[in-house]
Amino acid sequence: MAPVIDALAKACEVRPAELQDTVQGVAASYVAAPASVAEASELMRAAAEHRLAVVPRGAGTKLHWGAPPERCDLIVEMRRLGRLIEHASGDLVVKAEAGLPLRDLQEAVSGTRQQLALDALVPGATVGGALATATAGPRRLLYGSARDLLIGITVVRADGVVAHAGGKVVKNVAGYDLGKLFTGSRGTLGLIAEAAFRLHPLPQASAYVSATVADAGQALELTRALLRSSLVPSAIEVDGPDPITVTVLLEGFAGGVPARAEAARDLIGGQVADGPPDWWGRLPDGEVLAEVRAAPSKLTAIFQEAPAHVRGSAGRGVWHVGLPAGDAEQTLDRLRRHGSAVVLSAPDGTALDRWGSVPALPLMRRVKDQFDPEHRLSPGRFAGGI
Amino acid sequence: MGDVSTAGLDGLAERLRVVAGAGNVITDPAELRTYECDGLTYHRATPGIVVLPDSAEQIAEIVRACAAEGVPYIARGSGTGLSGGALPRTDGVLIVTSRMRRILEIDIDDERAVVEPGVINLDVTKAVRPQGYYYAPDPSSQQICSIGGNVAENSGGAHCLKYGFTVNHVLACEVVTPDGEIVEITEAPGYDLLGAFVGSEGTLGITTKITVRLTRLPEKVETLLAAFDTIESAGEAVSAIISAGVVPAAIEMMDALSIEAAEAAVACNYPPGAGAVLIVELDGPAAEVDYQFAQVKELCAAAFEIRVAADDTERALIWRGRKSAFAAVGRISPDYIVQDGVIPRTALPEVLARIDELSGDSGVRVANVFHAGDGNLHPLVLFDDAVPGAGERAELVSGQILDLCIEHGGSITGEHGVGVDKAKHMPRMFTEEDLDTMQMVRCAFDPEGLCNPGKVYPTPRLCGEVPGRRTRIHPLVESGKADLF
């Protein structure tokens, strides 16, 4: 044990794991906190030499997502790797280290009236954590999700090699887009160390129009009416079932938003407000939390199949559902008839098929084998036991 | 492409005739030559065999047949690519998707369409426009380029400043993998293989069915043409528009030389004497567009003339000069290289001044056309191939422009792709480790290196080797399946 910690200590700050240093109940042996990409590289090299299973940890807000790792020798604590590297405001680009909290990044760029148009679905999340879990909130309708905003990435491979892809210009097709591959890879392909994003101007004004509807069928009708309109909403969210609410977000110039909000109210009824409803951009409650992706027209089916809490982007067909643990398996089976359903979190010890059937899984295994041939990075946390 | 042999292809041609039908396999040398290049005519190679399949199943069988024989294969859509990405191999099979032109499904409720790879980009828009929708990515070749090719190249277009690239508008791809399997790849669940596949320039497999997102037509579109005395003042207007928080659908810039060419070719009638023109297009809800358009006009106050398109006909007139710019250069120069580099937008004044210097020092004329909003430059490097050494001097200047892009933290390609043309430049933008890591994806998809080999990466990675230890001759090189650049 001593030689291992000594080897890690040559790379960066390291300590023996304490009681709270667990990942889904799996206790780690060491916690190391690199403060630079070079240190992270040295650390991963040392971990490779000693064949350590590695789980990265940002703010730890989603560490309970996914299956427990098969092994976890080393937690790589990312928060010291948390600097804002560059905000090129004239170019609408920001580059940051992965451990920077999203909130801090937003604050830094807001001074020039800019924003990273990515909602922090889980408060407190870091840049790297948001990327690794591919979380996105209501405004994915207009701006896309993390993968659509990411323009460059630096990763540290399982063998310690540092690699970059993309860059710091928005328009760039040179080389494979590793950024997209790493987005949503949940720590199984390498350590996300730095990320560059395209920014958007902060809107001058925003308005939320909310209507309570009688049933899911009506929610679908209103969603379609909004999509078919020329209003260009930034988000169309539906929350339910008790009651079912449709809320649309309109953003833009101060001179244009009020008229668009009125037009939206003509379409769906309800009330116009300056601020969002209290459930906006947050995950629903429930013992088992799952992300469901289905065509937008499956809205009614999803409300039918998931008796508990449903919330999400009705315009994009990305939903979060909160389910009671008892019959979660059956509910997930039913939901999977309409699209994909992936369990994000479940109470410890719940036996669940967390992923359902994943197309192209054999290809994914081959990608994993290339990036992490010894299966030491967050082993067992991903689809198909990757 | 080195020492190649076509002797081994006869048996394969027979096999492909069984798969795709005798009439859809070309082995006649004269006919094969019509496929010898894509839009970048500088690189040419006559394919060993051309096959025109009609289904994913046929493509899968073709790929399996090639794999069994160890023969490389290359997919080609309409052949409009500008980086030699679909350059054939004399010892390989060219799989042309032009018979796969069916729009399989249009679902307005879910804002998507499912199309075959040979479907022409603009035909998607034509099919859904009556219902108030369009397909947003609009490469300049959209009247002839295919969606399959767009997926391979992650094509952009003038309007990608606001709407993004092909990758942002593709929801799923059915793909024939180099194993000859037919799989569907998406963004989620699991790894975002779709994000890695789109833009991989045909090196990870062949897409056979594409689900694209449809975008609602905007309520209002406004287009203006602003003529400036100098390119600097036009550049300042671009910066001012972006700083004001406006995200136009497009901002395009042309310099005096490219205006001259466009004038000669299509009589676009841009304001005489302009050192540069800007085309700014705004779209969206009427209330937003009206407000922003007034603002943009103010920010272009330094222009000596501003023309606003009153209707779609006038809009087309404004765009005509810009859209004809590449071809128009043929009117003022017998030969030219279309370059495609990207810089951070704020570096524009400095980079343009440097291009001017390069041009002055070398005597090589450079016409500048660019997507100014996202810093994507398309310098047109002019030369006369009849003059000894002129081609080489033009190549040199063209390469130096890419160096400028890299120096300023940009990219060697914004939308034309790396292909065979820019593979040699990749090590200037990326480290050996970066390229090695990217090719790990290649190794996962195509360990034998038969799917469009020799493109994108200058040095193929030996799949399965320990990274960083490349001491033996690569077996693909040894067997003639790949070249080192």
TrEMBL record, chain A:
<dbReference type="InterPro" id="IPR016166">
    <property type="entry name" value="FAD-bd_PCMH"/>
</dbReference>
<keyword id="KW-0285">Flavoprotein</keyword>
<protein>
    <submittedName>
        <fullName>FAD-binding oxidoreductase</fullName>
    </submittedName>
</protein>
<dbReference type="InterPro" id="IPR006094">
    <property type="entry name" value="Oxid_FAD_bind_N"/>
</dbReference>
<dbReference type="Pfam" id="PF01565">
    <property type="entry name" value="FAD_binding_4"/>
</dbReference>
<dbReference type="InterPro" id="IPR016169">
    <property type="entry name" value="FAD-bd_PCMH_sub2"/>
</dbReference>
<dbReference type="InterPro" id="IPR016164">
    <property type="entry name" value="FAD-linked_Oxase-like_C"/>
</dbReference>
<keyword id="KW-0274">FAD</keyword>
<feature type="domain" description="FAD-binding PCMH-type">
    <location>
        <begin position="23"/>
        <end position="202"/>
    </location>
</feature>
<dbReference type="InterPro" id="IPR036318">
    <property type="entry name" value="FAD-bd_PCMH-like_sf"/>
</dbReference>
